[in-house]
Specification:
By secondary structure, the chain is of the alpha/beta class. Helix content is about 40%, strand content about 20%. Strands 1-2-4-3-5-6-7-8 form an eight-stranded mixed β-sheet, sandwiched between helices. Strand 1 and strand 2 form a beta hairpin. The longest helix is centred in the N-terminal third of the chain and has 14 residues.
Length: about 280
């Protein structure tokens, strides 16, 4: 996969956001983090799942940036950020996020985490409660969901031998309707995995970032929390989101019909309204 093609797919997704989006980068010690910045106001940090990068949030950045400053980083190991040899467990990602926020002089922010990004957000909120305002978990990992056989095969296939065929197979398990996803996101996801170091997070992390977080730790989260879940999620069953909403003290859950593991793509207008209303509420 040619480097220019990868960047072209990414740029097409950034162009789709419509708002005035800046792409910036910062280097902390030796790790370069690329991030998207859009809007003004209270900071909202978007943490994408285990694939592609910050552009996964293309359906939501513009809407949320109308009232907030959206910061969407390519998490270390993904997108255009560095992909070092590393453990890629929740502690590693949480330390990276804390360093990233400190470098940007963000003392506190709303944190929105999707899938693996949700597990990172949970770990970060448990360890750094004072740096988190509201917490949003979107079809979050870390809540004990067991991936069934075929979705697991799709995940392994896509991350080990990325191709259009693997993507088509995998898409049926992460979207209610694969057509709801911009094809440039699929192409970018494949391109990132094919690029140097693109498989490091999957191979070296060995799934530790998405492993179950204990109920005892979840009960420690005092932040106002919204759990958003696609009712048709074939990767992480909705029951795990419902259970977490009863465990996390100040949590509530909002289910989205006709949406899978990526409700922001399956039902963008509904998803954005739910998220925006929650972040704006007093």
């Amino acid at each position: 996969m040619k480097k220019e093609n990868k960047k072209n797919y990414r740029q097409l997704l950034i162009d789709k956001i419509e708002g005035l989006v800046e792409q910036r980068e910062v280097t902390i010690v030796t790790i370069k983090t690329t991030y998207l910045l859009c809007g003004n106001g209270k900071p909202v940090i978007f943490l994408h799942g285990a694939g592609a990068g910050a552009v996964t949030w293309y359906p939501s950045i513009n809407t949320i940036s109308e009232n907030f400053q959206v910061i969407a980083p390519d998490i270390v190991g993904y997108g255009e950020s560095d992909k070092p040899d590393a453990p890629y467990n929740r502690s590693y990602f949480s330390t990276w996020l804390k360093d990233f926020m400190k470098e940007l002089k963000i003392s506190k922010a709303h944190i929105v985490g999707l899938s693996q990004g949700g597990a990172i957000a949970l770990h970060f909120a448990i360890e750094n409660a004072e740096m988190v305002d509201k917490l949003v978990l979107v079809d979050s990992a870390g809540l004990g969901a067991k991936v069934s056989f075929w979705p697991l095969i799709g995940t392994i296939w896509m991350n080990s031998f990325p191709s259009s065929m693997a993507n088509r197979f995998n898409s049926r398990y992460i979207l209610h309707k694969p057509i709801n996803r911009d094809p440039n996101h699929s192409s970018y996801s494949i391109a990132v995995l094919k690029y140097k170091g693109g498989k490091n997070a999957f191979k070296q992390g060995r799934g530790t970032a998405v492993s179950k977080i204990s109920e005892e730790l979840l009960k420690q989260i005092k932040n106002e929390t919204l759990i958003i879940w696609g009712e048709d999620d074939k990767l992480f069953s909705v029951e795990y989101g419902e259970a977490a909403a009863k465990i996390i003290p100040n949590a509530k859950i909002h289910l989205i019909q006709d949406a899978g593991h990526l409700p922001l793509m399956d039902q963008p207008e509904i998803f954005n309204k739910i998220l925006d209303d929650f972040l704006k509420s007093e």
